[in-house]
């Protein structure tokens, strides 16, 4: 309850900050976009990771307000980078949306408001949802269809750790799969086979595939060989504040 009240204040006083991790094209290692990851500057405990406060926010409606803030801030940042002429190609921006927010009537309104306020084209926004929430929520599914019809890119995050099977993919309103790092980070050949299978199926269904958690050169090489489209991970860059993230995107253009 204390943490909940502190979250209220943090929202009111804007104590949140987004860090940005580049998403690179595997064939060139060039950034094609970013994933926004929230941090909380707590007055006593310092910089808190989302794992420490998102679960608390999810127990109340605070998660929707945090999600709304994140959508606005991430799209506003993208518009600022556009205005600075930071990149010759339009960068994408991925935002993590909580299952609770996805399953609420607020989400579509919040996404539309963020896009309107920033002027960002819907196709440049990636909405990441974890597959565990897809299970049988009619509002969530409805929202996904609506966002997709608006032109927003829908992505399944942490793919492979939840309940979605490859066979369900053609029926789901999604455009992108992000393969969880428990698969991409493994050296086992069984995991490589699994990634190969997921990529083949995803491509057959017209989805693009992101490999998460790439930490080394050999891993990046192997995943490129498995036909993954884009990747993220400490090997390319850690999540970082907007200023430094922008420098990364302008390095080799
Ligand atoms: O950045 P980090 O690795 O600490 O993120 C930990 C977890 O928090 C990840 O699962 C990520 O998806 C989630 N997360 C990061 N930012 C946000 C956000 O803005 N909203 C929600 N709902 N989850 C987030
Ligand atoms: O659940 P989601 O995929 O949104 O989580 C993103 C989280 O993964 C962030 O907390 C981010 O800091 C973390 N992350 C990003 N790249 C790597 C990596 O290469 N290795 C590990 N271990 N974590 C990573
Ligand atoms: Mn994510
Ligand atoms: Na993930």
From TrEMBL:
Residues of the full protein shown: 615 to 867 of 878
Record-annotated EAL domain positions: 1-253
Chain segments annotated as coiled-coil in the UniProt record: none
Superkingdom to which the source organism belongs: Bacteria
Name of protein: Diguanylate cyclase (GGDEF) domain-containing protein
